[in-house]
Amino acid sequence: MIADIEGLYSTSSHAIRDPEFFKDCKGIKIFPRVEAVGINRKERKLNIRYLDDDRKEEMAYDKLVIATGATPFRPPIPGADLPRVFTVSNLHSAQDIKEILAKGQAAKAVVIGAGAIGIEMAEALTDLWGVETTIIEMADQVLPAALGKHVSKIAENQLEENGVKVILSERVLRINGHPKSGVTSVETSVDSPEGVLDCDLVVMSAGVRPNTKFAAEAGLAVGSSGALLVDRCMRTTDPHIYAGGDCVELRNLVSGENMTMPLGSLANRQGRIIANNIHGRASQFKGTVGTFCIKVFDMGIATAGLTATQAKANGFDPIHAIVAQHDRAHFYPDSQMMFITLIADAKTRKILGIEAVGHQGDAIKARVDAIAPLFQTGLDVDDVCVLETGYAPPYASAMDIINNAGNVLDNILEKRNIPIDVMDFLKKFKAKKIRVLDVREEKEAIPLIEKYNDSWICIPHPELRTRLNEVPKDEPLCLLCGTGARSYECQIMLAQNGFTNTKNLQGGAAMLGAAAPEFT
Amino acid sequence: MIADIEGLYSTSSHAIRDPEFFKDCKGIKIFPRVEAVGINRKERKLNIRYLDDDRKEEMAYDKLVIATGATPFRPPIPGADLPRVFTVSNLHSAQDIKEILAKGQAAKAVVIGAGAIGIEMAEALTDLWGVETTIIEMADQVLPAALGKHVSKIAENQLEENGVKVILSERVLRINGHPKSGVTSVETSVDSPEGVLDCDLVVMSAGVRPNTKFAAEAGLAVGSSGALLVDRCMRTTDPHIYAGGDCVELRNLVSGENMTMPLGSLANRQGRIIANNIHGRASQFKGTVGTFCIKVFDMGIATAGLTATQAKANGFDPIHAIVAQHDRAHFYPDSQMMFITLIADAKTRKILGIEAVGHQGDAIKARVDAIAPLFQTGLDVDDVCVLETGYAPPYASAMDIINNAGNVLDNILEKRNIPIDVMDFLKKFKAKKIRVLDVREEKEAIPLIEKYNDSWICIPHPELRTRLNEVPKDEPLCLLCGTGARSYECQIMLAQNGFTNTKNLQGGAAMLGAAAPEFT
After folding, report:
1. Average pLDDT of span A396-412
2. Closest Cα partner for B128 from B154, B102, B156?
3. Which one, A341, B29, B186, B271, has least CB within 10 Å?
4. How far is Cα B134 from Cα B203, in angstroms, rounded to an integer?
5. Which residues, in sequence order, are CB contacts of A130 under 8 Å at separation 6+?
6. Domain-located, residue A106
7. Within this chain, do residues B345 and B444 fall inside the same structural domain, yes or no?
8. What distance in Å separates the CA atoms of residue A241 and residue A245, rounded to the nearest whole number?
9. Counting Cβ atoms within 10 Å, is residue B51 exposed (0-12), middle (13-18) or buried (19+)?
C-alpha cells in the first residue's frame, strides 16, 4: 500500500528517522551496527561489539533499557534456508520480497502460517502483485491465536473469495528448490500430486522469538516464552535495567497469566512508562487485554481478551453470543452487516473476550475498543447491555450491536435463548439431523425451500401465532431469521406454547451466509 | 438521506412498525390516538381519553411505564406560530417540511439554534435541497451544550465552508409573515438592513421539554428540568410506576448531577432495564456520561463528559490538551487529520471530558467510545496514556491519538508543556502581542513569513540547537509546528537553554488552519 519505503521510517512531518535525526531533534546518540553481547551488571557496563571491525568495548550505564525486540521464528523444515524463503519482520525483508515481485520473478507463493503476518502477506501478494498465493496452516482455522471458529470462518471465506487458497489442518514437510535459484515447491503431508505446491516464493509466518539471549546470560529472569520478566514499572529483575517491547512478557489482564504480545502500539506506550520511571516518576504499565486488529482485503477484524478455547484452558467456563447487526442505523445508505462474538464466563458473567468482523474497519475496531479497556474493571454482561457509546444514525443503531451482544448473551445465560452455532448447525443440517423453520418472509425462504425441500419450512414471524399447528413438534428444529432477533422472539413464543424442541441459529441467515456462502 | 419515509419506521427486516406488527410479532396491544390524561395511583388506574370521540376511560395496571418523551420547545417569539415555522421531532414535521422543499417552495431558510437538530436540519436544507440557510445562535459558538470553543470553531467553519451562514451571539426578536402564506423574514437585534433575514421557512431548534404534566399532576416527583425523577431501576417515586426515555432525568456520571439526555440510544437501553425490573429481575441503569455524536456534512464530531465550562460550573478545575494527529498510521493512504480535546481536573487528574472531530466519522466516534465508558471508573490522565486500543496501520497509529492526548495533558499538568490555545493565540497574534517561531521546514513557513513579515520567524527543528542565538529572548514567543509535537520538543530544549518565554500552540498548524483557514 505504501509506494515509497521511506514513508515507513519517516515521521508524520516527513523527517527520515536516521541517526542524524535522533541527534539533531531528540539529542540522542545512535550507535548503528553495534551489537549488545553481554551485561556486566555488577559494574553496570554493557559489552558491545562493532559489527564492521569486530571491535569490542564496554559502555557504562546508570540505567539500561533493553528494547531488542523479537526475531521471526524459522521452523526447522528441510529447505527452510533456501533462497526466496522469507520471514518478514523488517524493512530489509520487505525490500527483498518487493524486488522479486517488482521484477515479475514470482508467479506463485506459499505462505506458511495463517497468523497476522501470514494473512497480511497473502493479501499483499495477491492484491497488489497478482501472485497466486496459498496459505498453509497447522490449526483447523485461520488466526487461531486470536479468533474463535465462527469469525475465523468468515475471515477464511474472505481470503478465498479474494483469490487466496487456504489449506488448514496441514503442515509443510519439506521445501524443495535449488541452493542458488531458490525454492521451487513446498511439500505437505498429503500423499498425492496435490500435496506438492509449486511456488517461487515462500513466506514463513510462524511467530517470533524474543531477542533476549545476552540478557538471559547476564542472569535476568525470563518467562516460559523466553521473553524478559518485568514488573509494572517495566523493570527487569535487575532494578537498574528496564525492558520493553517484543522482548518482554506482559500480564494478560483477563487470564492473569503472562504472555507475549509483540505489537508496536504496546511498545510505544511502554517507552514512555520506562522514561517516566527512569526520571524518578512512578508510572505503571499493568498489562494487556490482547486487543488486536487486522485488515483482510476490504474486511476489518478486531478482537480482545480470550477466545473460548483460551478461556477454557485458563479454567473459565466460557459461553458466547454471536450477533449480526448493521454497523449504523439499518436505514442509513452505507450501513453494512457486522458480526460480533461476545464471550463471558458462565459462572461470574464477567466478559472474557470479544471478536468483531465486518466491512467498515473503523466501525469494527470501534466496537472492540469500546469494551476491551473495561475488561480489567471486571466488566460483566449486564454492563455491556447498557454500555454507553455515541449514537447518531450515520454511525450507530439506537440499540447498538455491542448492547445487543450483551442482551443476547444475557438471554442465553438466562436460558430464554437456546442457541445453535452456525458451524454446529451446518454439521447437523448436512447430516439431516435438524430441519429449519425459517420465520422470514416467504420470498426470502423460497430459494432455500426449493434447494432443501422439506428440510426447510417457512412460516413468517407475523403468522406464526396463528399457524402453530404447522410447526413440527417432536423433532429438533432450527429457527432462522435474518439475524437471529426475530427467531429469538419466535423461540420464546413457541416455548410458551409447548414447543421446546427449537434451537435459535446465532446470527441468523446473515451469519449462515457469511460462514457458508452456498446458503445466501 | 433516507428517500423513503417508511424506512424510518420499519425494522431492519423491512416490517412496518404499526399496531398490527406489535400485535402479531410482539403480542403487544397498541392504543393509537389515545391520550394519558391522569393517573389514579391509589387504585392503580390510568385515565385515558380517546382523541377521536373525546371518550374517557380508566385502564387498570399492575405496573405502569411512562414513556411519553419530550416535545420541542417553541420559544415565545412574536410570529413563532406562523405557518412554515417548524419544530422537528417526529415524522410528521419531517414530512411537512419535505413537502414544501419538494415543491420548490423554499429558497431561503433560517434555523434558530445551533444545537444538534439545528445543525442536522441546516445540513439537510443546504446539502440535499439547495436551500440558502442561516443558523442563528444565542451563544458565542455552535453546539454550546456539547463542545468547547476549539472543536466548535472547527464545526462552525465546516458549516460555513459548506454554504451554511452561521450567526452567533445573536437572538431572534420577531418572525414576520402572513397568517396564511407564512413566514417572510426573521428579525434579529441588529439594527440595520442586515439584521432582517428574508426567508420562507424557519426551523426552531431550541431544545425539548419533557411530556410529564399528567404524571407530575399525579404527584410523581420531577426534577428542575420538569422531567421525572427515577432511581437506578428506572422507578419513579411511585414503586408501581416506571419511566424512561426523554421524559426522565438521568444522573450525569461525571458531574454527579441530574440532567436530561434525550437520545433514542439511552431510551432503548432503559427499555430493557425497565422490563427486567417489572419481571422481577434486578437490573440497573446508572446514568449517562453524555456521549454524543453528530455528522456535519463530511465531518464527524463526538464528545462525552463535561465541557470545560460545564466542568467549572460543577466545581472542577478543568485543564485541557488539544491534539492533532492522523486517524491511522500517517503513512497510510487514506489517513486524515483528526483533533481531540481532552479535559481533566487539575487537582485529581481525573478525566472530565473529551471532544473529537475529523473527516472519518467512525474513527472519530471510536476514540470517544474507547474512553467514555471508563469515566465512571475514575479514569485518570495516566490511564489514558496507556489505554489499549486496537492497532494496525490501516486503523490507528502505533501511538494512537488517544494516548497522545493523555501524554500531552500529562506534559501540561507537569508543566513541561506550556501551551497556548488557538483562539487565544489568534487574539494575541492579531494584536501583535506575540510572535511565531515556526520550527517546520522553511518551505512550509515561507507563505506565512511573506504574509506576516517579522511576526513569523522560522528555524527548523533540526537546526534549532545550533541556531539558539537567533531565538528572541525577551518577548513572548509562540512555538508552532505541524501538530504541536515538535514544537513541544523545542520548548523543552529552549527551556533547558534559558528560553522560558515560549508558549506551545496546541494542535500546531493543523489546528490553526482548521480554526482559522486564512493560516493554511
Report:
1. 97
2. B102
3. B29
4. 10
5. none
6. yes
7. no
8. 14
9. exposed
Please state the φ and ψ torsions of residue B209, each to the nearest 5 degrees.
-120, 135
Query: For residue B18, what is the domain's CATH number?
Result: 3.50.50.60
**At residue A408, what is the residue type?**
V
Residue A176 within any structural domain of the chain: yes
B235 touches B242 (CB < 8 A): yes
d(CA B516, CA B498): 32
Same domain for A470 and A376: no
Q: Helices (H) and strands (E) in chain B — how many of each?
A: 15, 27
Q: What is the mean pLDDT of residues A34-49?
A: 97
Mean pLDDT for all residues in chain A = 96
Give the type of residue at A470. Answer: E
Backbone angles phi, psi at B242, to 5 degrees: -105, 160
For A403, nearest residue in chain B (alpha carbons): B269
Give the angle A340-A346-A351 at the CA atoms, nearest 5°: 45
User: What count of Cα atoms within 13 Å lies in the side-chain half-sphere of residue B510?
Assistant: 23
Q: How confident is the model at residue B169 (pLDDT cuts 50, 70, 90)?
A: very high
Q: How near does any CA of chain B get to the CA of A9, in Å?
A: 9
Instruction: Note whether B431 contacts A: Cβ–Cβ < 8 A.
Output: no
Amino acid sitting at position B432:
K
Task: Assess whether B347 and B442 both reside in one domain.
Answer: no
Please tell me if residue B460 touches chain A, with a CB cutoff of 8 Å. Answer: no
- Whether B89 has a pLDDT exceeding 90, the answer reads no
Tell me what pLDDT residue B26 has. 93
- pLDDT of A63-86, one tens digit each? 999 999 999 999 999 999 999 999
Domain membership flag for residue B370: yes
CB of B67 within 8 Å of a chain A CB? The answer is: no
pLDDT of residue A39: 98
> Does residue B449 surpass a pLDDT of 90?
yes
Question: pTM for the whole thing?
Answer: 0.96
Which A positions 258-277 lie with beta carbon below 8 A of chain B? 263-269, 272-273
Domain annotation covers residue A78 = no
Q: Per-residue pLDDT tens for A230-249?
A: 999 999 999 999 999 999 99
Residues A216 and A124 in one domain: no
Among A294, A373, A486, select the one facing B370 at the smallest CB separation. Answer: A373
Range of the domain at A113: 85-208
Q: What are the pLDDT digits (tens) for A474-506? A: 899 999 999 999 999 999 999 999 999 999 999
Please state the ipTM of this predicted complex.
Answer: 0.95
Q: How far apart are CA A355 and CA A291, in angstroms?
A: 10
Interface A-B, measured as beta-carbon pairs within 8 A, has a size of 233
Q: Are A168 and A134 in contact (CB under 8 A)?
A: no
Instruction: Tally the domains of chain B.
Output: 4
The whole-angstrom distance between B47's CA and the closest CA on chain A is 31
Q: Which residues lie below 8 Å from residue B89, measured CB to CB, with a gap of 6+?
A: B70, B71, B72, B117, B208
Q: Which of B208, B235, B263 represents a domain boundary (last residue)?
A: B208
Domain CATH number, residue A439: 3.40.250.10
